[in-house]
Write a structure and sequence with these properties.
This protein has one domain (2-187, 242-279): CNF1/YfiH-like putative cysteine hydrolases. The chain is 22% helix and 27% strand. It has 8 helices and 16 strands. α4 runs parallel beside α6 (225-235). It is globular. The model has no long low-confidence stretch (mean pLDDT 97).
């Protein structure tokens, strides 16, 4: 199996399907994770080739086959997948075996879910991206995991902190024991926003917004979502040394990763995958 470093992640490939992983999470024996790329699917045209987003015009049976191929290559049980229902809010849902297939082979049963958490080995969490920021959470003490979707609206609303608090309630997670990874998304190199977006962050003085906003041409600003999310996580109690940032801009790497801005919205979608392993799986039994 091919493995190549890219940013703070590793690119892996099997059977022409490519995905990214975090070395920091690869060292955690109780979980399995991945972040998809554009490579290795059967979609065509503007969706070529590994499109994992339903509802953008790609036939459903094609997207399902992409999931099957991705799961076979990256090692996730297809029947275990459970997807979010993202709308740029901060609703976090705990899922278990009862939700397997939701959003993939079964209809969505909720309209607003931007975060998923579980400690159930029978479930694989799935969240979607095409420039927004993926947040991966791992609690090695309670063997619990979470995925959060954080665009600028979710970031200003504190999606990362919402995930930390919900994992504390559901699993007894302590923030200082969490390991968090900030995945590929549009970087400050490319992400231009207007004054109205800057003002949304400006009221949160404790985050020091001037440290992640930069002047850009045409009365615009560049927003560093990676640093904004990192500061929110630290404010929520996550230790700085427990946070890994991918450092991979989706727009700069739009031949490898789907980017809404790079394609003008004519695109497929990426997905993050995260699963707790059973103790038998972890021990190789």
């Amino acid at each position: 199996m091919k493995q190549i470093p890219i940013g703070e992640m590793n690119y892996q490939e099997k059977d022409s399907v490519g995905w990214l992983t975090f070395p920091a999470f690869e060292r955690l024996s109780f979980l399995h994770h991945a972040f998809s790329t554009r490579l290795g699917g059967i979609s065509s045209g503007e969706f070529s080739s590994m499109n994992l987003s339903f509802g953008r015009g790609d036939p459903r049976e094609t997207v399902e086959e992409n999931y099957r191929r991705f799961c076979a290559a990256a090692g996730f049980p297809f029947e275990s997948l459970t997807a979010s229902a993202q709308d740029h809010h901060t609703v976090v849902r705990r899922v278990s075996a009862a939700e397997r297939g939701v959003g993939i082979t079964r209809p969505r049963d909720r309209e607003s879910v931007d975060g998923l958490i579980t400690d159930d080995p029978s479930v694989t969490l799935v969240t979607y991206y095409a420039d927004c920021t993926p947040l991966f959470f791992a609690d090695p003490i309670h063997r619990a995991v979470g995925l959060g979707h954080s665009g600028w609206r979710g970031t200003v609303a504190g999606m990362g902190a919402c995930m930390v608090r919900r994992m504390a309630v559901e699993f007894g997670t302590r923030p200082e024991e969490l390991l968090v990874a900030i995945g590929p998304s549009i970087g400050a190199c490319c992400y231009e926003v207007d004054e109205a977006v800057r003002q949304e962050f400006a009221v949160q003085e404790a985050l020091d917004p001037d440290s992640f906003f930069y002047r850009a041409p045409r009365e615009k600003y560049r927003l560093d979502l990676w640093e904004a999310n990192r500061r929110i996580l630290i404010q929520a109690g996550v230790l700085p040394e427990h946070i890994t940032t991918a450092g991979i801009c989706t727009q700069c790497n739009s031949r490898l990763l789907w980017s809404h801005r790079a394609t003008g919205g004519r695109r497929g979608g990426l997905a993050a995958f995260l699963r707790v392993l059973s103790k038998e799986e972890e021990n190789g039994d």
